[in-house]
Structure formats: structure tokens, C-alpha cells
Amino acid sequence: MSHNIYFDNNATTPLDSRVFEAMKPYFDICYGNPASQLHQKGWEAKEAVEMARKKVAQLIHAKPEEITFTAGSTESNNWALKGLIESLKEKNPLEPLHILTSNIEHASVKEPLLYMKKKGLIDIDFLPVDSQGFLSLETLKKNCRSSTKVISLIWVHNEIGTIQNLKEIAAWAQENHIYLHTDATQAVGKIEVNMDENPISLLSFSGHKLYGPKGIGALYTRSLNPKITLHPLLHGGGQEISGRSGTLNVPSIVGLGKACEIAQLEMKNDWIKTSQLMTDLWNNLKSEFPQIKLNGPKVGTRTVYNLNLTLPGIQGSDILPHLQNLCVSGGSACSSGNLQGNPVLLAIGHNPNDTSVSLRISSGRMTTNEDFQKAFNEISKALKSLRFNEKEEVHRVL
Ligand SMILES: Cc1ncc(COP(=O)(O)O)c(C=O)c1O
């Protein structure tokens, strides 16, 4: 099997074997339904769910009752935004609702917002970010209206690695009685996320981005100062404090809890180890191919798990066949011939006619020194075979 050097951890991380071991008994031995509270099997399952909830809460310095299990970030983002807006509309049906967000959000934030706008429930401003992907507090202040009730901002960017200054934004939002939701999919288990210190109202994340299973995630909903009320996502048997009915996915919940427990212990070391390796990879590539452009903040001020590189004048269709042993993501400001390119690259100022490929290289806990060395060799070999080091800095513009 080719594609064996895995550098697509922002898409999904491998399951940690310790997580897998923790999950196993909940498939075939402890298979009870946590809602069955008249027998041992149900009690065991409920205990496992509540233990996992505690571990998730501990990782982000929250209270267990502030954690609801979902199917992942897409669901958490949808529920946070639709649930909050429906709840605000129920309280004050005639009051206008204005939402501020950035123009680099993941589709699972952008699309539910556009859906609610289409339904006439809200007005939205998708605010511009700077060339490194930062949304400034000044831009938020300038666009804030008396009807602005919610901000939604991605914490760590999945494509360009920008870590927003959420502490400052959360403090300002709280002072101005604006609810702040953050898509923290690439933040939780990677950087310090502390809900005690940051007055964030709602926070979403997915298990499979922190070495847990797919199809499980969580939504944090603040319980105090102020308490956030969400309209239920699913109506039915009343699970998850009547917010999300349906039998709980016990093995995956246990897996998410274990993944959070491991992250709490290992996150700092993972970061330090990766920081050195990613910096070396970038320095080596840049010294061999000075034309390479780094998208997003400078190395040292971005998440260490990601590099996003534009290769001026190289098309995706040229380079991807040379990278068969390397699993990375690709994109360009303009996707060959069709002017609807990557909205994130466009938002940070790429030329909308430029078809040059951008590679997203994302590593993780399981990425070894040898993997980094192989990744460098593969990219270097591919670029040399395309004579990239001999090219002038001319972008192919359609
Ligand atoms: C920043 C961000 N938000 C949301 C999602 C959606 O996560 P999921 O597919 O687990 O629902 C992703 C996944 O790629 C992501 O990177």
C-alpha cells in the first residue's frame, strides 16, 4: 500500500491504541444502555459515560454538567449556533439578531449561519482577516451593532494554522454581553483550553482530531456568568439533559474520555517535540527552495502541527502524482480553470486567478522523526523532478 507517510492529521488523527483498548469492553461486555437504571449493565454504562464526561471537562477546565456528547464538531457547531439563536428568538421574537463571524470559518459554522440568514432569523457579517488569518478586535468592534448578540470564531485554523487571540476577544465579548462560540476542533488536546479563565459561551470539538474515535465529539455550554440556554437539538427520550435525545454511543464516549485524559498528560510534550520537527522541516524546505511560500502566521507563532505551503507556478495535477507516498491535503486559490478556489487562501489575499498548488502538511503525536525526514525527501524529490528550484517566480494565472 502506498501513501504510507501520514501528514494529514488535521483531517483526522490515528486512533491511539490506548483509546482503542479502553473502548473494547464497551462493545461486548459492558453493552448496557446508560438510560437503563434498574440493573447492573445500565449502571456500568452510565458510570462509564459520567467518568468520560469528567475527563473531557477536566481537559478544558469545565464542569462535567457543561459537557454534552455529540457526533462531532459539525453537530456541535450546528447545535451551538442554531440552538442559541432559536432560544434567543423564543425569548424575544421581534428583536433583530446580528451575528459576527470570520470569512475563514469551517463549513460547519458558515453553512448553518447562512441557513438561518436565509430563513430570515439573523443578519451576519463575515469579517475579513489579515494576511496571516487573524481577526482583530478592532474589526470586531467596528462591525458590532446594538443587535450583535453572537460571535463565532474558529480558535485554531485547520488549514493555515492561525491561533486566534481568543482570550482578548472573549473578555471583550463578555463585557459587551455578546455570546462567543468557538470551533475549537483543532485546539482541544493541542493547546491549553481553559474555560475557567476564558469567558467563552460555547465550544465545539471532535474526538477524531485528538486521537479518539470518529463520530463522537462534545459541545461545551457555559452554566454560569452567564448560563447559556440552547434549544434542544433532538427531541425524544430526554438524554443529555433533554438537549440531545437518543441512546448514548457508550464505546465512543469512553474513547473520547480516554483521549482527553491522555491529551491532558501528553499535550505539552507532544507540542514541544513537534515544534522542533516542524520548524526543521520548514527551515530545510525553505533553504532548499526559497520560492516556497508559507500561508498563515510565521513558524513559531502558529500551531506547530501544520504547515500550509504554496508552490508558486506548480499545479496540483503536476505535483500530486509525485507525492504518492505522502498523505497531505492540497488546494489552490483558483482550482484549475474554475475561479471558485479555496476561500481561506482567497481570504488571506491570494490572487483569485492563481492556480499554484498549496499543500497542507499536518502532523501529530504519532508522527516520528523518520516520517519528517521522509516527508522532506519526498517533497524535495518531487520539486526537483519538476525543476522547481530552476523556476523563476512566475505564477500560472488563468
Ligand atoms: C476546524 C474544523 N471544524 C469542524 C470540523 C468538522 O469536524 P467533524 O467532521 O468531526 O464533524 C473540522 C474537520 O475537519 C475542522 O477541522
Notes on the protein architecture:
The protein has 398 residues and is of the alpha/beta class. It has two domains: 5-10 and 267-390, Aspartate Aminotransferase, domain 1; 17-262, 3-Layer(aba) Sandwich (Aspartate Aminotransferase, domain 2), CATH 3.40.640. Helix content is 36%, strand content 15%. The protein is built from eleven helices and 13 strands. Helix 7 links the parallel strand 5 and strand 6 (179-183). It is globular. Pyridoxal-5'-phosphate binds at residues 72-74, 106, 108, 154, 158, 183, 185-186, 206, 208.
Give the low-pLDDT segments: none
The count of domains is: 2
Might you state the CATH topology name of the largest domain? Aspartate Aminotransferase, domain 2
Rounded average pLDDT: 95
CATH architectural category of the largest domain: 3-Layer(aba) Sandwich
The biggest sheet amounts to:
7 strands, mixed
Order of helices and strands: EHHHEHEHEHEHEEEHEEHEEHEH
Spatially, the strands of the biggest sheet line up as: 2-8-7-6-5-3-4
Helix/strand/pairing class, anyone? alpha/beta
Kindly provide the radius of gyration, computed on alpha-carbon positions and rounded to a whole number of angstroms.
22 Å
- Counting DSSP E segments of at least 2 residues, the number of strands comes to 13
Number of helices: 11
What is the C-level CATH assignment of the largest domain? Alpha Beta
Bound molecules: pyridoxal-5'-phosphate
- Name given to the CATH homologous superfamily of the largest domain: Type I PLP-dependent aspartate aminotransferase-like (Major domain)
How far apart the termini lie comes to 36 Å
- What proportion of the residues form beta strands (DSSP E)? 5-15%
Proportion of helical residues: 25-40%
What general form does the structure show? globular
